[in-house]
Amino acid sequence: MQKKHKMGRCSRTLVLKLLLSLVIITLFLGDTIVRGGVLHTNSRWIVNEDGQRVKLACVNWVSHLEPVVAEGLSKQPLDVISKGIKSMGFNCVRLTWPILLITNDSFASLTVRHSFQNLGLLQSIAGVQTNNPSIIDLTLIQAFQAVVKSLGDNDVMVILDNHITQPGWCCSNSDGNGFFGDKYFDPDLWILGLTKMATLFNAVSNVVAMSLRNELRGPKQNVNDWYRYMMKGAEAVHAANPDVLVILSGLNFDKDLSFIQKRPVNLTFKGKLVFEAHWYAFTDGQAWVNGNPNQVCGQVAGNMMRTSGFLVGQGWPLFVSEFGIDQRGTNVNDNRYINCFFAVAAGLDLDWALWTHVGSYYFRQGVIGMEEFYGILSLDWSQVRNTTFLNRVSALQLPFQGPGITEGRPYKLIFHPLTGLCVERKSMLADPLPTLGPCSSSNGWQYTPQKILTIKGTYFCLQAENEGMPARLSIICSGSNSKWEMISDSKLHLSSKLSNGSNVCLDVDENNIIVTNACKCLSRDHTCDPGSQWFKIIDSGRRSILTTSTSSTLNSPLSST
Ligand SMILES: *[C@@H]1O[C@H](CO)[C@@H](O)[C@H](O)[C@H]1NC(C)=O
Ligand SMILES: *[C@@H]1O[C@H](CO)[C@@H](O)[C@H](O)[C@H]1NC(C)=O
Ligand SMILES: *[C@@H]1O[C@H](CO)[C@@H](O)[C@H](O)[C@H]1NC(C)=O
User: Fold this and answer.
1) Tens digits of per-residue pLDDT, 297-311?
2) Strand 434-438 and strand 453-455: pairing?
3) Cβ proximity of 492 and 294 under 8 Å
4) Which of 11, 168, 315, 422 makes a 20 to 30 Å CA pair with 160?
């Protein structure tokens, strides 16, 4: 704001410099916003005070198990963990907490040391003493505040997630924490807890949202009580802290929000409501192993659209607040699911939180020091468990669409979920081979009504040459081998017809070369994995302009101001 006043008095070159930096700042913010400020919603997008999209790209950080201490403080200094989250490109943390942390004063005023002592976790005491000596004698609620502050100091937003009432691993149908009226789920106590938590963090600017309750479930769950209590909870949080977004989870372990389609949530305030949903491989049992991956992806993604994905079409933000896989790469069910998940999440450009950041737990389900194979970090929290997986996740960290990103210059990206990369043209040189590169700097494509994929602003189209051969870029785009249909039940194969009449599918070989091969496992076969042939054509915006042409960055933002 100040910049505008100053410009009138500056020399011409300085004006240009300032404008240029303004452009760069604008582009930068549009891409990697982490400073939330106060967030609100604009249709299906979460936006900042300037109306620019803020995509939630979060990790779950667990703080609701029996010790009620954010995991990992016995392994690494808090600031190191927070900086790690930030440096991996995540802009927020979904920090879990149990109601008793804030409603039971004698519990909240236990020190970290005593909490561990009560559970016999002496190694954790020694670890926190070493790595976080300033935290070991804080009370549990002070330690929780210290974690939030450390994240804020490192420009990481926080979503306070009420995970459960009683501290402990979550969730089962019979744990008494599942639905309003369950043994440990007193609605009044819950409202009190939400109110106190919202109040405690009222002036803490990096706390941008509160999710009211994780994974509603169990025999008592029903739609009428969902509306009754979730609206009460939402109003209570908003009254105590009008700055935070209010995030509502669905029924049946946060898989089902279908009821919203017919009956909207009626709140007294606007522009703050977000829905959340969970989606794992095991959400569908062993379906990914037992079925044909194309058919399962088609079915499961279709089901997801009916139960929660439809919300974005109705103008509500959808936050996939839990997804993830065993990062050892040995779980076939997980491996197949995650390709489909990435395709859907990129296609809809959803907000999300990965389960999880933690490499291990102090104490989970009776096991001391349990390793978390779904965790981004290794057992000792000193390194990334699987950099390949992290790189794939990072493809989804930047927004593809939305206010401040898509305006004026929409185009497509050809996203390859298995690698987390996008199909692009290597350079401005006349290289005839398409290649894979980071989606953040990928070429924009056009997908014409004739099913031709051309690089935007050029005559080059994607073309199949022969089975087993690299695909190429050509400027003669009239043949059947330049037409690409999205086929199979997953609609994730890009298929073309060679001049000899045979069909091939775009594929990525083991050296990451883009080739065309016979289409894999189009139906029935459940022993094969088509992952290398899955591509998703997604809508995107301005980002590639940044790297493909510096001069064109000057045009759009400047002419619009
Ligand atoms: C409150 O916390 C104390 C100390 O941990 C515990 O003994 C007590 O049972 C808790 N009260 C409730 C209502 O859970
Ligand atoms: C929404 O709630 C208000 C009162 O809080 C009520 O007046 C209004 O009729 C409700 N609207 C719908 C569509 O239920
Ligand atoms: C990382 O995951 C990939 C599969 O996504 C797997 O092949 C690889 O072995 C994993 N690496 C480690 C170190 O676990």
Assistant:
1) 999 999 999 999 999
2) unpaired
3) yes
4) 315
Ligand nearest to the CA of 337: 3
Residue 486 identity: M
Residues with CB under 6 A from ligand 1: 100, 104, 106-107
Check pocket membership of 480 for ligand 3, CB cut-off 6 A. Answer: no
Candidate from 68, 99, 107 with most ligand 1 atoms within 8 A of CB, to mutate: 107
Token pair for 281 = 């491989």
Task: Report d(CA 316, CA 335) in Å as an integer.
Answer: 29
Query: What span, in angstroms and rounded, lies between the C-alpha atoms of 171 and 252?
Result: 11
Q: Does residue 458 have a cis peptide bond before it, meaning omega lies within 30 degrees of 0?
A: no
CA of 345 to the centre of ligand 3 (A): 21
Domains identified in the chain and CATH numbers: 49-278+315-326+349-384 (3.20.20.80), 279-314+327-348+398-545 (2.80.10.50)
Nearest to 197 by CA among 347, 303, 95, 44: 95
- For the entire predicted model, the pTM comes to 0.90
CA of 105 to the centre of ligand 1 (A): 8
Cα gap 337→422, rounded to integer Å? 19
pLDDT digits (tens, 9 = 90+) for 488-546: 999 999 999 999 999 999 999 999 999 999 999 998 899 999 999 999 999 998 653 33
Relative to the alpha carbon of 376, which ligand is closest? 3
Ligand 3, atom 9, residue with closest C-alpha: 329
